[in-house]
Amino acid sequence: MTGMGTLGDALEHEHRAIDGGIEAYLEGDPGHPPVERLVEAMAGLRRHIYLEEEFLFPPMREAGMMMPIFVMLREHGALWNAMNGIDTALTDGADRDAVAALCKDLLSLLDAHNSKEEPVIYTQADAMLREEASAELEDFLKTGTMPEGWVCANA
Ligand SMILES: [Fe+2]
Ligand SMILES: [Fe+2]
Predict the structure, then answer these.
(1) Is residue 125 part of a domain?
(2) Has residue 148 been placed in a domain?
(3) Cβ distance 53 to 72 under 8 Å?
(4) 4 falls in which pLDDT band (50, 70, 90)?
C-alpha cells in the first residue's frame, strides 16, 4: 500500500471503529440509546467479515495458514449469529438493557477474535498477499460494499 500504512493497519482501524460504535450505544443515554450507531457498527462488521472472507483469507489459506484461518472463520460465524440476535432483539422492541447485554457479549467475542486476528493474521497479510490480491483488497477497503444477502461461511 502507498501513503496510508499497511493493510493490517487499515483493517485494525476498522476494528476500532466497529468497537467504537457498539461502545457508543452502551455509553449513550439509556433513555435514548443511539441505536443508529449500533446498527451502523453491525453493518460495518458484516462488511469487514465479507472483505476478510472474500479477499484476505483465500490467498492466506493458499499460502499455508490453514489452521488460523479455520479458527477465524468459525469465530466469524459466532459474531454473525450474535449480530442476528441483536437484530432480532431490536426488531422485537427489546428494552435497552436487554440489547446492552447482547452488545457486551458481542464485544467480548470481538475482543477474543481481534486479539488473535491482529497479531496472527494481519501482521502476515502484507508479506503473504501478492500484488494483485492486496490491490484488490485495498480497492475494496476504499469503496466496496457487501453484496445484498451475503452470509459468512459459518453463520
Ligand atoms: Fe475477522
Ligand atoms: Fe478483522
Answers:
(1) yes
(2) no
(3) no
(4) low
Ligand showing the shortest atom-to-Cα distance for residue 15: 2
Q: Which domain holds residue 101?
A: 7-143
What ligand has the least distance to the C-alpha of 113? 1
102 located within any domain: yes
Centre of ligand 1 from the C-alpha of residue 121, in Å: 9
Is the pLDDT score of 1 beyond 70?
A: no
The answer to the question of residue 149 being in a domain is: no
Cα-to-centroid distance, 25 and ligand 1 (Å)? 22
What is d(CA 22, CA 42) in angstroms, rounded to the nearest whole number?
8
Q: Please tell me the distance between residue 129's alpha carbon and the centre of ligand 1 in angstroms.
A: 16
pLDDT of 41-85, one tens digit each?
999 999 999 999 999 999 999 999 999 999 999 999 999 999 999
Alpha-helix residue ranges (DSSP H) falling in 52-130: 57-62, 66-91, 96-116, 123-128
Q: How far is the CA of 121 from the centre of ligand 2 (A)?
A: 9
